[in-house]
Design goal:
69% helix, 3 helical TM bundles of succinate and fumarate reductases, binds protoporphyrin IX containing FE, globular, 9 helices, single chain
Length: 233
């Protein structure tokens, strides 16, 4: 236990926690983005996907707990690392000309906060349905089609996905630095794996709000009576 607490207290320990929880997040968004593309196959495909996720409720809840723990640990270590770095240099630099940085790196904190706000809204919108105008349990196709028909909501989703792309671009690269698995490259566009990951994930997700705006998801009658929403999510 002592070792674990010492690990958590150390700066490198927090960075490793950020890296490992970041990898969990990357795997999740890759899977989730691919699943969402089933919107283009139609209502039946999305319904089957929703049922597949619920094949085993204990497993689903275990995955949800791991994801929740990953998000909390990622955000807490990010906050503590930022506080530590501020405390180490309370004055700030009189003149600061960073040698190697990207817009992506400079917006990690703001982007992270935006993504957290998005996540809370998103769960209330498409999982719980509390802020959705016509939520139907187990009919994600209709929920997404109606939920993102509002241009403000679609715009917020699109903005959050762009922020996710930038966050992933810097984050995926930072993981390789923390874990020491790649030779450092100072040229942002040479970070090919991070760039491809960011473009594929953000681009794939972005197709959904764009699709909703251009009418790519034809109307289909809702699958389940909304009154059955009490069954649980
Ligand atoms: C265009 C972007 C997105 C769309 C259209 C979308 C769509 C959905 C839908 C339809 C569900 C409900 C699935 C179901 O209950 O069967 C869902 C759940 C969820 N989404 Fe997203 N999503 C998007 C982006 C994201 C992003 C970027 C994240 C994470 C950063 C995320 C995290 C989650 C989580 C954690 C759940 C709950 C899964 C569960 O425990 O049931 N989503 N999403």
């Amino acid at each position: 236990m002592y070792g674990l607490s010492q690990f958590w207290q150390s700066t490198i320990g927090k960075k490793i926690v950020m890296a490992v929880t970041g990898i969990i997040g990357i795997l999740f968004v890759l899977g989730h983005m691919s699943g969402n593309l089933l919107m283009f196959k139609g209502q039946g495909a999305m319904h089957d996907y929703a049922l597949l996720l619920r094949t085993s409720m204990p497993l689903l809840w275990a995955a949800r707990l791991v994801l929740l723990a990953a998000v909390v640990l990622h955000a807490v270590s990010a906050y503590q690392l930022a506080a530590r770095s501020r405390a180490a240099r309370p004055q700030g630099y009189a003149k600061r000309a960073p040698q190697v940085t990207t817009w992506s790196a400079r917006t990690m904190q703001a982007g992270g906060v935006l993504l957290l706000a998005f996540l809370v809204f998103h769960l209330l919108h498409l999982t719980v349905g509390a802020v959705h105008p016509a939520f139907t349990h187990l009919d994600p196709y209709t929920n997404v089609r109606i939920g993102l028909a509002n241009p403000w909501v679609a715009g917020f989703y699109a903005l959050a996905m762009v922020a996710l792309g930038f966050h992933l671009f810097h984050g995926a690269w930072a993981v390789t630095r923390t874990l020491g698995v790649a030779r450092p490259s100072s040229q942002p566009l040479k970070r090919r794996v991070a760039l491809v990951l960011a473009v594929v994930v953000a681009g794939g997700f972005l197709l959904i709000p764009i699709g909703a705006m251009v009418g790519a998801f034809p109307e289909a009658p809702a699958l389940v009576d909304p009154s059955s929403a009490a069954e649980g999510h």
